[in-house]
Amino acid sequence: MERGAEAAPGHRVISHLHRSNHYDVYDVFSEERACRCVAKVPIPGEEGGRAARRLLREGALLRRLAHPHLVRAYEVIRDPRPAVVLETLTGETLSYIIDTTPRRLSLREVACLGIHLCSALHYLHRHGVLHLDLKPSNIVSERGFAKILDLSIARPPGRARRGAGTLQYMAPEQVRGGGLLSPATDVWGIGAVLFEALTGEMPFNREVEDEEEPDTYEQLERRVEPVRSHRRVPAALARLVERCLEPDPAQRPAVLELMRKLEPFAG
Asked: Which residue numbers delimit the Protein kinase domain (predicted)?
């Protein structure tokens, strides 16, 4: 949509921020709030399909749940087209920070990131919700606070639908489908994010483009590479991240255990 168009009633477009496979995200001016907000809407042609239903479910979740490390939703709009109005975040995505910062994140920064993610995921799990799509592009650093975005595929624990998630960050049970999704599935996501934050490398399928169907899913074929093969970090921290990426969900740490063991590295 062009500048000045209504992304949703009373929310005029300032600029287009991002397009994913299913959604457009706009910087908008809210007439009711007299400030800038973010509007997330289905891409053209998706207004009445699964993407629209996911968006409305995501908006309802974010309106119901409130946590310092989750993006805040102000409003869920159904007509004339589905839209969710969100708070404006002034930071950068973790993926942008990893790609553009000359130095790697410090151990303290990575540990704080992990603690923030654990805090938010513990809260979601207490409310019966799994995120299932943790990745650096879904995390914004806002004045030193991690904020998690995009609950579009969030759902309660239960049987997995094959391939729901992002290739490089999906746990084996997500890739296979039919298995049980549990809080341990999100622990895998935390581990994948921390691995990339520490090393600058995706843990799996790093050569595959987003739109490609891979020949093999590496998380089904091999274990994660040792963190210390990419960067010299304390052995205890490396092993903690690698435990999050255990193929067997029962071998991964619980969220609060992970949080507690990250605390010494945060200072």
From this structure: 11-266
Taken in order 83, 76, 169, 137, the sign of the CA dihedral is positive
The answer to whether 27 is a known catalytic residue is no
Per-residue confidence of the chain (267 residues) as pLDDT tens digits?
A: 999 999 999 999 999 998 988 899 999 999 999 999 999 999 988 777 888 999 999 999 999 999 999 999 999 999 888 999 999 998 999 999 999 988 999 999 999 999 999 999 999 999 999 999 999 999 999 888 999 999 989 999 998 776 678 889 999 999 887 778 999 999 999 999 999 999 999 999 887 765 556 667 899 999 999 999 999 999 999 999 999 999 999 999 999 999 999 999 998
pTM: 0.92
In the chain, domain spans:
6-86, 92-266
The two structure tokens encoding residue 187: 């622990």
> What SS3 state is found at 76?
strand
CATH superfamily of 6-86: Phosphorylase Kinase; domain 1 (3.30.200.20)
CA gap 265, 107 in Å, rounded? 7
Q: Spell 127-160 as b/e; 16+ CB within 10 A means b.
A: eebbbbbbbbbbbbbbeeebbbbbbbbbbebeeb
Please check whether the domain covering 92-266 is classified as CATH 1.10.510.10. Answer: yes
User: Which of these is catalytic: 24, 79, 99, 133?
Assistant: 133
Buried (b) or exposed (e) across 25-36, using 16+ Cβ within 10 A?
Answer: bbbbbbeeeeee
